[in-house]
Amino acid sequence: MPASDLPDPAPLCRIGVVVEAPQHAGLWGPLDYLCDRPLPAGTLVRVPFGRRVVTGVVWWGGDEVAPEATVEPAQLKEVAEVLDGLPPLPPAWRQLVRFAAAYYQRSLGEMALMVLPPELRQLDATQWERRLKRLDKAVAPPPAKPKRARAKATAGVPAPSASSVVADEATSPSLATAPVPAPVLPTLTAEQQVVLDRLAEGGDQPYLLWGSTGSGKTEVYLRQAQRALDAGQQVLMMVPEINLTPQLEHRVAERFVGRRIVSLHSGLTPAQRLRNWLMAHTGHADLILGTRLSVFTPLPRLGLIVVDEEHDPSYKQQDGARYSARDLAIYRAKQEKVPIILGSATPSLESWYNALPVAEGGAGRYVRLAMPSRIGAGDMPQVRLLDQSRLLRPTMGQDQPPFARELLAAITQRIERGEQSLVLLNRRGYAPVLHCSDCGWKSGCPHCSAWRVFHKADRTLRCHHCGFSERVPRACPDCGNQDIAPVGRGTERLEEQLAEALPGARVGRIDADVTRHKGALEEQLASVHAGEVDVLVGTQMVAKGHDFRRITLVAAINPDAALFASDFRAAERQFALLLQAAGRAGRDAEVAGHSEMWVQTWHPTHPLYQALRRYDFVDFAAQQLKEREMAGLPPYAHLAMLRAEGKTQEAAQAFLEAAAQAVMAEAQAVGVTLYPAVPTPVQRVANVERAQLMIESAQRMPLQRFLSAAQTPWFMLAQQHRRSGLIRWAVDVDPLSI
Fold this sequence. Notes:
With 738 residues, the chain is of the alpha/beta class. The chain is 30% helix and 21% strand. The protein is built from 18 helices and 29 strands. The strands form six sheets. It has an eight-stranded mixed beta sheet, sandwiched between helices. A six-stranded parallel beta sheet has the order 14-24-23-15-22-21, with helices on both faces. A hairpin with a 6-residue loop joins β18 and β19. α5 (190-201) runs parallel beside α6 (217-230). It is globular and about 85 Å long. Mean pLDDT is 89; it is low at 147-178.
């Protein structure tokens, strides 16, 4: 056929694609590309970007009306590959990403690509096709007989596990060979029944489930999840930290036999994380258990969101796109018209304010559900305050004894009765610093404005900010004195001192140092539950969420540091930590009557400790809210932080001062206050100087409009200041650390 007789090629379609671009690129929205076929929004594609080919998300295309073209088609690049076989990311997901990017002042591409599994962003079309085949094999029901054929059909499929997918021959309806009896449900308390009845009534407001530790909040989550599953819906359950997921996985797997359950958190391998995300996105997973990033999981049948320990600061991302997963979960529930339960024994003051009726000075935006009683009508532990000023003073050159004699006696009594004790010290390592008594040298980090912590187990000095580590010197680096000694104590030293003070006692420790390796946390927790530990030393990671049935005494060592901190949220966090820690004791009603919480403090009359003695969260919250209202702090005001990092402190602050000056008129016009630039509490990390500038507004919308308008002048200023030492800058909306 002559070339002139060949049909004209089909015209190329113009589509908008968002890609992950560095902040300094200034790309905030979709980029135009050409494709040989119309692609619906939400499709994953591979596109040329600079000298690379990267993964992107089609943001507009198909039948949607394209924005007015600003670039000639001849100048546009074509899509390299289309990742076929995956349902497009749904409109609700794109709206959530769009809102998060706008609210937290990040580019659309950065937010959209950041929340996808890392492995998904690296696969080309051929690799992607292989992954889909594996997923199809994993979810397809194998032949019932013969057994050899069934084994062959599942060959090559990763073995399911609690950390990836709970769907094996014992639990999956597609793989089960015989009916599995339904689990025996515990009897509900009157308070649980009232809460569930109220949840059954429905409504479009978030629910704040305020229940004391041991009141059975998890059972409420599971019953409400059952309602959603029975209706053919999916359930998203969020926890603040990875160390809480194994326990929840176990309870959920026991309750929902035959359901597909997946976990999503950073402790998974890239392959596990991608597989679980695909199971959720394609609708094959019924329950999704996850940490912060799971709030962005696309779920076609979403019917319920649960945010456990909603007060926990771990829900706030502290670098990159600094989003709050709790707040985005609330937005997502409203957007998709599904119920959301925020659970906590110590709600954040923002959530508490939103759940207070307007008549009581609150916002009235949430429905508050209360469960003040423990299951079995057990009492909360009696709080005992030990005044350290009355203890024996140490002799010259000695540290203050870590334990009062009365506390050691109380722990000994527990050991004799076969009970367990928990000692809380929220500082890991052996000692915060090494010190030379001759010249005054201290083990500072050469790269940070912080001390290096002494870890005795491996004889290292380790910076907990930048990770720099080296062996402990044999003598003082400055004067050669060989008598360098640890000052203060961490959990490692406390464990050693407890073992010396209680000969024969089985002392265990759980902190980030002993749980670094995969499976270590589960192993340590199992030994505690099995009664193989008499006294458990731990940081905040064991103070919340765990159901230790044998613990009848909890002791807090040196908790006073937060009482006079500069951060206005310090008291709130400390009260929450201590009350959550107290809740680890007496969870079995048979021993609740003699369970105790001991607090060693130099300030026993402080209002925080007095409220703790009464377990009076209502009074504590009222006092804190009153102080914040007088000071004009959240939730009565709205904050943002403009943060800068530079080669020198002068470079960081110079950018912040110039940024403030550039938008000062706009700020004054809308009632936004800009405070002077100051160094951050830890001024230097990894040889990078850090500074910040606080932005305050009485209303949220003026603050958002101001921040959006300020992005362009700040971006231009940053380009200029890079020549004088600015490294990076970012906006932190609703900051948790001040």
